[in-house]
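Something for you to look into today, if you have time. Could you write out one complete protein record for me, on any chain you like? The space below this message is yours for that.
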Amino acid sequence: MRIAAVCLFLAAASALQATNYAVVIGIGTYGTRADLRLDGPPRDADSVEELLVDKLGFLRPNIVKLVDAKATRTAILGAIKSVSDRVKPGDRVFIYFSGHGTSAFDPKAGSQVCTQVNSGCLIPFDVSSGTPAQVIDSLLIGSRDLRPIFTKIDESQPESFFVVFDSCYSENAAKSIGDQAGTSKDAPLSKLATKAPTASADSYDAAFIKLRPQTARTNDPYPYTRMVYLSASAQDEKAFDISQRLIAGRQAETVDTKPHGRFTNQLLRAFQKGDGDLNRDGKISYAELHQFTMESLQGLQTPQLRLPEKPVLLDSPVLEMAILPNSGEYVRARHRVRVRVTTSASELEKEISGLPGIEVKEEVPDFVVSAAGGKYQLSNGSGLELRQYAAAEKRDLLQRLAAEPKVREIFDYHVNSSKARPAFTLLPAGKSHFAVGSEIAFEASAPAKSYFLMLNIDTDGVVTVVYPGGNEAIGAVTSRRIPAAVSGPPTGAEYMKLFTFPTEPEGYRKWAGAQLAPGSSTLNDILKAVKTSADGDAALTLYSIPRK
């Protein structure tokens, strides 16, 4: 305890040498627009403000908090511009938004107006309900409105500049999502505009033509040299809000029993309980925060981390301030796998409850089993449909549930190491779901030469060793790019896990390309090697869909 107190004191003393600025925005109500109401954002803003003060060394007078009616377009831009006018080298800047986002695709220009590389397209409290052109004029568009101010902050050379947006920009997500996921934080333009254009100048086409010179394409390079950007979901996903109804019905839980965005809830968990310090080295790096939120959201949302091409930045403490007491060995809280069986699939309840390591429970389930149209649906606790099973495949469903305790042992395991964590990326970037037959690639890198072990856990719980795959030269390297193709059926959520080893683990060459059922002796050997000699890990989720 004495050592921990000294660490925190040193962090606070360092903070006094710089000024920390924050703008925190949460919009849950949009005037009379009941169809846009969200329960979480006002509580998100309150909790993030307390986090900044209690854990990250910010002074309350330097935090501007805009909630609901105070979060107008003018007020938001004014608050961020005020920071850009005051920030100086060595300062720290944090910008946070929770509320609705929207998508705006210009098909004629082939470009996305609301791209994440420019921090998306946000809906302020006073968004217009008029014609399409009036709606677009009233939005906060990253490339038009935010990028110039962010660039000014970035060029002022702050020690750290972190932007977090809990909103989404996709109105056409391909994933199948259950009601227990919560309320979507996307509001399509077609939903916002309540008046038809009265003239050609009021149309979407006219608005897009006006915006084209300021519109960034999705493959444009990252435009900032210091800013780190973390978003709640990929460009092809929705982000969700945990409502009071879900909490009251015990279908979801939050850090403080209050409504929150699903992403923000995990962000708060990372810092309030120190869960984001995955390697228990006394800090939460940007890489760890991204990894923790991504894993915790279970594939429902895939947070996206964008930052300049500076490897050292990835492993820097968040805002250079995330110094925590080192609690030593990391042990993830475990319980028996909880499965909620809906009344539509009640005939399976007895068989499911008899599976080893499984309990049927209504509250905060890990899985939900339901039935519709003669098929069983298996969803995770966040509401993401993992797979459908025909009635004749009931045994396959039960086997998948029985495999989960061992699957969880792999996917949840984190290596305790003070060294920099490996990077693990899915390409093409910014996407999370892919049609069967799509060509993808995995990029893995480590700070030192390592032996990589890349595992895929498919919709049936089968573990495949993707790398080494049997065709590559085996040896210690600092990076690997592994091309792959999405296979199926079946389709659904799949998990990827990467481990690094400083020396070649025993049996490594024999594992190449193996397909392993949970509980197999080879999989047990892999787990043993991971727990005794792995020095790094990372994970990601992808979602396969049928090709149309």
